[in-house]
Amino acid sequence: METDIDSVKDKQKNLDEKFTHMETNLKFADEHINQLQSSLEKSKMEVYECHQKILYLEAYSRRENLKFEGIAEASQNNATSTRSENTEDVLVGFLENVLGIEDPKSIEFQRIHRLGKPKNDSEDGGRTIVARSLRFSDRERVFKQGRKLRGT
């Protein structure tokens, strides 16, 4: 009986040691999980801040752009099946004839292009033209003349 009791005591002692070891490991794992969670929260904040900075920079870089909608595109060239249009000439003509800007060729643009892919069917107004001005003052000059188009 005493040997059985000693055997049970030994098993109890081994179980107590294993339990203590498991508690130690659990505390260690909990500490690491807490550290990882705080690191994850910090990373989420950094990603959010980077996202906000990217949005700001995108808006800042687009401030020299003007969008022109409703300007008809050149008719499709039957021989090559592509559109042959000088978008800058189309825009300069629009600025001069519709907006009444004197000497629109003095306005310098970095880039003028239409958005999207050309379509084969004839469209009312065509694709949007995006013009990036070289100087902000030129952009404002055109933008102010755009008020003439209200209601059109």
Provide a short characterization of the protein structure.
By secondary structure, the protein is mostly helical.
What does this structure look like?
There is one protein chain. Helices cover 53% and strands 10% of the residues. It contains 3 helices and 3 strands; from the N terminus they run αβαββα. It has helices at 2-61, 87-97, 136-145, and strands spanning 65-68, 109-114, 129-133. It has a 3-stranded antiparallel β-sheet. The longest helix has 60 residues, at 2-61. The radius of gyration is 35 Å and the shape is rod-shaped.
Give structural attributes.
single chain, 152 residues, mainly alpha, 2 domains, 3-stranded antiparallel beta sheet
Secondary-structure-based class equals: mainly alpha
Order of helices and strands: HEHEEH
Assembly status = single chain
- Over the alpha carbons, how many angstroms does the gyration radius reach? 35 Å
Strand order of the largest sheet: 1-3-2
* Overall number of domains: 2
Can you give the helix content as a percent range? 40-55%
Number of separate helices: 3
